[in-house]
Amino acid sequence: TGVEGLRDRRTVWSSAQSGLEWKPVPGKPAVGKSGVERQRQLKQLAREFTAELLDTRANNGGEEQQLRQMSQAIHRYECPQQQILEGGIFAYVVGTDPELFLLLEAAETDGRASWRYGLARMNRDKLAVKFRNEEIWRVEYLAAETLRDGKQPYFCYGVQPE
User: In this predicted model, what pLDDT tens digit does every residue of 146-159 receive, in sequence order?
Assistant: First the structure.
């Protein structure tokens, strides 16, 4: 499904794709039976993801930075109607500025529960994510024309002060 952004009731962003792809957590860790156990697993699994940014703000060549994962999920959820048993959104930051979000959830499909993850970039620079020291995701630098095209999953919209 897509996403749409409006400003003054006018569409400024309309992407046919969400940009988030769900993938199984590598190694297929078992999902706990109780809510308390799943909450513990959620935090433990999240700590096993690490993220790096090639930051181009200071220089065009970029500076590699290990992103810091916020210690707590910024949002926890469950949705029994959609068979989501436990979920959380974790932010990876420079200072307190989110550069990447990790969505991690235990979901049931055909009566079997499994952990899955999705990653959402919040920066145009190169990003890479590892799980247990193995790279599982990488995105490249986004050119200015891609950022402002208004049809891509990642979009940057500037507003002039009035």
Answer: 777 777 777 676 66
Query: What is the model's pTM?
Result: 0.87
Q: Is residue 75 within 8 Å of 96, Cβ to Cβ?
A: no
Contact (Cβ atoms closer than 8 angstroms) between residue 124 and residue 154: yes
3-state secondary structure the chain: CCEEEEECCEEEEEECCCCCCCEECCCCCCCCCCHHHHHHHHHHHHHCEEEEEEECCCCCCCEEEECEECCCCCEEEEEHHHCEEEEEEEEEEECCEEEEEEEEEEEEECCEEEEEEEEEECCCCEEEEEECCEEEEEECCCCHHHHCCCCCCCCCCCCCCC
Of the candidates 84, 93, 160, the one whose C-alpha atom is nearest the C-alpha of residue 122 is 93
Low-confidence ranges of the chain (pLDDT < 70): 1, 155, 157-162
